[in-house]
């Protein structure tokens, strides 16, 4: 009786909350005048008043006081003394985009404040590595430097600070990275991480605050323009000060105040009024990064400090050449790294993936780690060995403080630095698989489960809902960035037409019926093999502004197609409704209903040559190898992520009843045309499939029970965990802080799937359409 009472009470609360919130939401939508899809997105993000919407677009706000940062007063006093004494000041920076923009801001700021002897130094990534080193202190002393100010680094350099003190070099540190146990002993350590509630500024943002303090907030627009680039490039939360820096910086860039950026963008943007944050994230930032990744970051700083178009043109061409070389090296290393993704004895990919290779380019391993993290939905570290030692770069996923996690295993490293989202390190040569095992220990449960719950979206929509007015309102919410991400939507549509594009035909462009916006999938040209005219398609993507021939238009940028896109329109033509009674030749793909069945069939088929089994959907990096085999048997769990082995199988054998007709369409995309055959026994019992669907797909009643279990400390069902996350549920939160189920995209999609199951299984499998 106690359990029943808890269940009924919890269910009642959820229903009451839904009714209460829907009334509040409808009032918000009416008062704001937003299109339904836009108001749903903002409401789901906790933006629930007209004033909150207006605040997103306000231009009259000011940054927080610079002196709120620790030691800012000490730093300003130190610098003003140096100026009065006409001392030689050196800015010591870092080689990434945030580091070079912070360097430029600090150098120009000191010059603007009246310093006559200012220079800068950025270490070489390969010869010196990240951070402040003893050699840099010696070089500064030899050059007659009196005061050295770091930007975007220095918090983890107590030894260098001690050496500077011994040699009479005044050292001040400005940084934003995580703090080590032992802080450097310096007159001023300006790092927002020292605050009780840290202001998550980038290195360039911290440098901007120093300049504001030095100039009593009389800061020209140029400083905001350059700081905005570092803020976007370093992926700091785009809230508060950071959002304001980027907004003001974009306005400044649209005025052309930074000659170097103006020239670098060149033909990409004919009308500088159209510059948006994406241009900084995907073009300007990577070009600035490429300089340091290829060895010498000084050209990037020189571009930002250029005062004429002639000077800027020289440095812009240099950066473009470096970036092209970086892209070529990156593409090669990504392929090598994917082919080294480790599997344990049961075929599972570790929760934390470590891959390594001899002489992998240290300048691009960070990008490679980011690419693998996105593909595998796990934290990833990539190491390049150079003899008996190596340098590595790691990238995190949501919910994992990467620096703190790796710090628990600090005995593995020779040196470790970074923050929540990214870390760099050096270490002695060792087995990367062993490192994968070590780093996979004690991962937070939410991090481990991320790989299974699918991609989080803001809303599930039909393409017809994205009206021009809705698109205009979404674009008006710029700038987007970390912690105010560009809305990610699951879009249903009907295919009108498609083509591949790009010099190597690697990209896909398609149009949808009765939808004015083009859909582009970069690097996914193979998906064209699954599309059919007038056939359904579902993808997860974001609306972006596309710049072409001086014009900007909205278009969809696809992150991933749901399932395997549409598959054959007439999948029934390939089906034989009969059980397989004889051995099959050629490539065979078997489909089962659970991981347990998958392992059982793996045992039976293990004697066959070239058998492959990846139970948790970790096909990434292995699909090319499978395509090249002559005879391969593969077992797929229909509830898992499908491999993209298009037109690969001679036969597909259903060893379980399909969940609904879309599963058959998805499977058909993997079948050879026109001779491939899909075998389905018409007598298969649907109960195991429907029973599993009932367990996996949440109902309101089931979520009420899961919520009570979660509050008792038990882990919820996977889909339940995603729903709770999307609704902002937290253990012990007040009812008023919870959100209605109708605002969970995961819940919406689960209900859509369940309706498809109910509709299909109302008739015999042979009669499905």
What does this structure look like?
With 769 residues, this protein is an alpha/beta fold. The chain has 5 domains: 2-56; 67-254, inorganic pyrophosphatase (n-terminal core) (Alpha-Beta Complex), CATH 3.90.1640; 340-450, Diaminopimelate Epimerase, Chain A, domain 1, CATH 3.10.310.30; 459-561, OB fold (Dihydrolipoamide Acetyltransferase, E2P), CATH 2.40.50.460; 571-684, Rossmann fold (3-Layer(aba) Sandwich). A 5-stranded parallel beta sheet has the order 2-1-3-4-5, sandwiched between helices. A hairpin with a 5-residue loop joins β13 and β14. α9 (221-233) crosses α10 (240-254) and α12 (277-293) crosses α13. The longest helix has 31 residues, at 2-32. Residues 1-17 and 607-618 have low confidence and may be disordered.
Fold blueprint:
Blueprint lengths: L1 H31 L3 H9 L5 H7 L15 H13 L4 E4 L4 H16 L5 E4 L12 H9 L4 E4 L7 H9 L3 E5 L13 E3 L12 H12 L6 H13 L6 H15 L4 H7 L11 H17 L4 H8 L3 H30 L14 E6 L6 H12 L3 E7 L2 E7 L6 H6 L7 E4 L3 E7 L3 H9 L4 H6 L8 E4 L5 H8 L13 E13 L5 E6 L5 E4 L14 E13 L2 E11 L13 E2 L11 E5 L2 H11 L17 H5 L5 E5 L13 E4 L6 H8 L8 E3 L7 H10 L3 H12 L6 H10 L17 H16 L9
Parallel strand pairs: 1-2, 1-3, 3-4, 4-5, 6-7, 11-12, 14-16, 17-21, 18-19, 18-20, 20-21
Antiparallel strand pairs: 7-8, 8-10, 9-10, 12-13, 12-15, 13-14, 15-16
List keywords for this structure.
single chain, 769 residues, alpha/beta, inorganic pyrophosphatase (n-terminal core), Diaminopimelate Epimerase, Chain A, domain 1, five-stranded parallel β-sheet, five-stranded mixed β-sheet, 26 helices, globular, disordered N terminus
